[in-house]
Design goal:
The complex is a heterodimer of chains A (116) and B (111). Chain A has 116 residues and is an all-beta fold. Chain A has strands at residues 4-7, 10-13, 18-25, 31-37, 44-50, 53-57, 64-70, 73-79, 87-94, 106-107, 111-115. Chain A contains no helices and 11 strands. The relative contact order of chain B is 0.34. Helix content of chain B is 0%, strand content 58%. With 111 residues, chain B is mainly beta. Classes of the chains: A mainly beta (116), B mainly beta (111). At the A-B interface, strand 5, strand 9 and strand 10 of A face strand 4, strand 5 and strand 9 of B.
């Protein structure tokens, strides 16, 4: 099983709403990632969790709040977003270099977020 | 700071052609390099991972090569099919958890 599952697939939210994106993997990967992708651009790294601890925050605004409740789950909590935050949000996972040589990253199908 | 460049930005070929996509990177101290494909509005599908100690990897009609010293990788697609139409992304891993992506090559294979 090389699947990373993201829910929901689509989300429309107002600027005063609070919502959460969810990501799940069962490959034993201890690195999990959130990326943001705007149209016709490559993915941009937002956050990395290593062994359930936040290891990288790419200076993301605090209206995005990540959470890693266990080794299989990753959440992204959204609050007071702006229309320019509309994008495809991608979750990924991989082994860490200390877990093995093959650190191939696997991505989910993404959540298409629209902020109105 | 690692920078990844993909050439060409777009490519249109007739079905059946063999083709090469190029990826170059500025810092040769890489841990691995990964090729992905992305269909419109979808997530990324991993195609091939090449470790820094490897020269090439093959999967079906795909062959990826890596030349660390020159900072280059190529993705060779044999006997292209319309179903190969997608954007192909190259990403370089530096040993931390970060992947640095190129901007991608949009491939169109015409029937």
């Amino acid at each position: 099983d090389t699947e990373v599952t993201q829910t929901p697939k689509h989300l429309v939210m107002g600027m005063t709403n609070k919502k959460s994106l969810k990501c799940e993997q069962h490959m034993g990967h201890r690195a999990m990632y959130w990326y943001k992708q705007k149209a016709k651009k490559p993915p941009e790294l937002m956050f990395v969790y290593s062994y359930e601890k936040l290891s990288i925050n790419e200076s993301v605004p605090s209206r995005f709040s990540p959470e890693c409740p266990n080794s299989s789950l990753l959440n992204l909590h959204l609050h007071a977003l702006q229309p320019e935050d509309s994008a495809l949000y991608l979750c990924a996972s991989s082994l860490l270099p200390g877990q093995g040589l093959n650190t191939e990253a696997f991505f989910g199908q993404g959540t298409r977020l629209t902020v109105v | 700071k690692q920078e990844v460049t993909q050439i060409p930005a777009a490519l249109s070929v007739p079905e059946g052609e063999n083709l090469v996509l190029n990826c170059s990177f500025t810092d040769s101290a890489i841990y691995n390099l990964q090729w992905f494909r992305q269909d419109p509005g979808k997530g990324l599908t991993s195609l091939l991972l090449i470790q820094s100690s490897q020269r090439e990897q093959t999967s079906g009609r795909l062959n990826a090569s890596l030349d660390k010293s020159s900072g280059r990788s190529t993705l060779y697609i044999a006997a292209s099919q319309p179903g190969d139409s997608a954007t192909y992304l190259c990403a370089v891993g530096g040993g931390s958890e970060k992947l640095v992506f190129g901007k991608g090559t949009k491939l169109t294979v015409n029937p």
